[in-house]
Every structure is written in structure tokens, then in C-alpha cells.
Specification:
407 residues, alpha/beta, Aldehyde Dehydrogenase, Chain A, domain 1, Aldehyde Dehydrogenase, Chain A, domain 2, 2 domains, 14 helices, 16 strands
């Protein structure tokens, strides 16, 4: 691990010096290789699927079947994005004549630890290449065949663009001790990005000597205000819950204003047809074999399945209190036609992404115009929400003088 990290650090110096044209060439070659060798990748993925003991959401995340076209589309978006490296901003001239600005620079070496999702191998590597960083990838054992195939293509693309192949390296081992080794390499690695379960993220926070970006755990809420358009609200609720229920930005808890509970809750139950966990007030308006009383802990559960919590609240204030108590700080929204309620919600709820009259399913690098994402940070430093190219940069102060000396 130490040798790999040292190689990544050396490669990061070359990556920081690479031109936009060279980095874009690597990404274009990668896209071409993915198109040409699609069946090879899917065969490796099928081997992982055949060997795994995963079930449910984790199994769905492991599969690339039907998803490569979308992943390639995301890579094309990254290719078309402007290169952030070298961008200058916050320019100013001091009274003494010095000219100051900040200039974007790569972070350096990223250590990425993730579970199940082989698409992360491509997403993060593409963003790392474009932003002039190096990356060490430690994917889950369940995706090793797929990750090997993808890492090979990534290194071939780097080689074709005359960039260092050690800028993207896969930790090709199922040994979990490698994760602890990675977390101790603070002299070579600049940032750790864990993508996976809450247990993985907590492990990285506790054991890392390197700054850690955490997030991606979604306990997401929608509050339906008494002024909301109920017919249109139903479509948003259905999309937020049903469009892809196994991901972190899917809806977990629906909060309903008491004045519209009788009108809305039966329609939600009929439209979605899934399992519900309802508080005592919501149960008054619910019936059927798929409706159950909410238990202790349900409001703190990321369902990742076709289960939805439903709670009746007195007003926007009670909705805010519930969200601040139970949200993971990922994605929360309000459906309302009242500007005062909208503004109160936006001021009082402190999540990485807030929605007004829209589905939480939009919290995604591609949907936000970032091309892709390395993670969705629920922290406040140094990045928040979907992390794209700019989130993989730092900056330098540039001070331009005319042989100035300080008095």
C-alpha cells in the first residue's frame, strides 16, 4: 500500500502539470474503450453477480446491466466540462499596489473506499483525471472482477494520452486490512472518500489519519404543506420514492400537514401501493395489509426499499423540528404554494440539498450539471452536496507585486 501511495503521489505531480487537451484525450480514449469492450465489462460484472451473496439494494447497485450507456453519457459530460485547474478568482488590488487572486489547484491524491458500486470506479477516476488528481481505489470484494476490468481500461486510456498510469490504481485485494493501511498513509494521501454504509463511513472517521469526506447516507423527507397542489404533489412523492428506491436520495419519510391528511394519505397509499409505516394520526386515514404502525427507530431508517414512513404534523414548524431531529442532512424538501413557508423551510432546514416543489431524486452530480460525482457530502467542510470537479480542487493565493517590500 505504501508503494502504491508513493507512486500515486509522484503521478499526481505529473497530473497537475497536464494540459486540458491531454486530460481530455485520456477521457475520450476511455469512452471509446468502454464502447468497444462493453461485453467484456459486462461479463466480468456477471461473474461478480454469480459469486456474490449480496441481496436487495446492494445487489442492485453491483449490477451494470442496462447502466453502461448512462455511465458513458456521464463521462461524456465530464469531458465537455471546463477544466477548473488554473482558474483564477476573487481578484483584488490592495492599497499598496499588490495584486491578489486565488488559483485552483488539484487536491493531490484521493483515497476512495467503496462498496458494491463498480460505476464509482469510472465516475471518480474520470473526475480525478479531469481535475489533475491521482486516485487509489479500494472497491468492495464483491465487485473485484468488474473493477479489475475497468481499472485496466482506465490505465490504457492514461497510457494512450501519455499520462502516468499510476494516476489510477486499484487495490487488487479482498483483504480488509488494506483499508486500515490506506487510512494511515497521511504523508501520501490528501483526502479519503468512503462511499458505502454508515458503518464504513464511521470506521473511516475513527481510524483515518487523513481528512475524510462523509455522506451518501440519505434519510430524506418531503413535507406537504396545506397549500400544496395535491394532484401534482402525488407525482412528486411517487417519483421521489418509486423511481429508484435503492439509492440514497430516495424518499424515506413523508410529512403531511394535518389539514390535508385526510385528503392526501389515502391517495398516496393507493398510488404507491408499497409498504407504509405510519404514525397514529396517519393511521386514522390508512387501511390495507400494507399499512403498519411506525415503530421506534423507523424515523431514523434509510429504507433503500419500497417502504415509506408517513407522519402527520401540525404545521411547517413541526415539520422542520422533525427533519432537524431525524434527517441525515442529505436531501429534504417542501411542497407548498406559500412563499413564507418556503422561505422559513429554506432558512431552518440545514441539509446539503433542499427542494421546493421538486423530487429529492435530483441530488446527483449528473442531474446538477456536474457530469458525475465522487460523493454526496453531508458535511460542511470542505465540500457539500454532490462533489464534482471543483470539489476536487483547492486553491493557491497568488500575490503579484512590483518588487514590493513590507514596511
Amino acid at each position: 500500500m505504501k508503494t502504491m501511495a508513493m507512486q500515486a503521489k509522484t503521478a499526481s505531480i505529473q497530473m497537475a502539470e497536464a494540459s486540458s487537451e491531454t486530460k481530455n484525450k485520456a477521457l475520450q480514449v476511455l469512452i471509446d474503450l468502454l464502447c468497444r469492450e462493453r461485453e467484456t465489462i459486462l461479463e466480468a460484472n456477471r461473474l461478480d453477480l454469480a459469486e456474490t451473496k449480496l441481496t436487495g439494494p446492494m445487489l442492485e447497485r453491483l449490477s451494470l446491466e442496462g447502466r453502461l450507456k448512462g455511465i458513458i453519457g456521464d463521462l461524456k459530460e465530464v469531458l465537455e466540462l471546463p477544466d477548473p485547474i488554473g482558474e483564477t478568482f476573487e481578484k483584488k488590488r490592495l492599497p499598496n499596489g499588490l495584486h491578489l487572486c486565488k488559483r485552483r489547484t488539484p487536491l493531490g491524491v484521493l483515497g476512495v473506499i467503496y462498496e458494491s458500486r463498480p460505476n464509482v470506479t469510472l465516475d471518480i477516476s474520470a473526475l480525478a483525471i479531469k481535475s489533475g488528481n491521482s486516485v487509489l481505489l479500494r472497491g468492495g470484494a464483491e465487485a473485484l472482477h468488474t473493477n479489475r476490468a475497468l481499472a485496466s481500461l482506465l490505465q490504457r486510456a492514461l497510457l494512450a494520452a501519455q499520462l502516468p498510469i499510476r494516476a489510477v490504481q486499484l487495490v487488487d485485494s479482498k483483504d480488509r486490512a488494506k483499508v486500515q493501511e490506506l487510512l494511515r498513509l497521511h504523508e501520501e494521501i490528501d483526502l479519503i472518500i468512503p462511499r458505502g454504509s454508515a458503518a464504513l463511513q464511521e470506521f473511516c472517521r475513527e481510524h483515518s489519519k487523513i481528512p475524510v469526506i462523509t455522506g451518501g447516507i440519505g434519510i430524506c423527507h418531503l413535507f406537504v404543506d396545506e397549500t400544496a397542489d395535491l394532484a401534482r404533489a402525488l407525482d412528486v412523492i411517487a417519483n421521489a420514492k418509486m423511481q429508484r428506491p435503492t439509492v440514497c436520495n430516495a424518499l424515506d419519510t413523508l410529512l403531511v400537514h394535518k389539514k390535508i391528511a385526510a385528503a392526501l394519505i389515502p391517495r398516496v397509499i393507493e398510488k404507491l401501493g408499497i409498504a407504509f409505516r405510519l404514525d397514529p394520526e396517519a393511521l386514522r386515514f390508512a387501511s390495507g395489509p400494507n399499512c403498519f404502525p411506525a415503530c421506534e427507530g423507523d424515523w431514523d431508517t434509510e429504507w433503500l426499499s419500497l417502504v415509506l414512513g408517513v407522519k402527520v404534523v401540525a404545521d411547517v414548524h413541526e415539520a422542520i423540528i422533525h427533519i432537524r431531529r431525524h434527517s441525515s442532512g442529505h436531501s429534504d424538501g417542501i411542497l407548498t404554494e406559500e412563499p413564507a413557508h418556503r422561505e422559513l423551510f429554506l432558512r431552518a432546514v440545514d441539509s446539503a440539498a433542499l427542494y421546493v416543489n421538486a423530487s429529492t431524486r435530483f441530488t446527483d452530480g449528473g442531474q446538477f450539471g456536474l457530469g458525475s460525482e465522487v460523493a454526496i457530502s453531508t458535511q460542511k467542510l470542505h465540500a457539500r452536496g454532490p462533489m464534482g470537479l471543483e470539489a476536487l480542487t483547492s486553491y493557491k493565493w497568488i500575490v503579484q507585486g512590483d518588487y514590493h517590500v513590507r514596511n
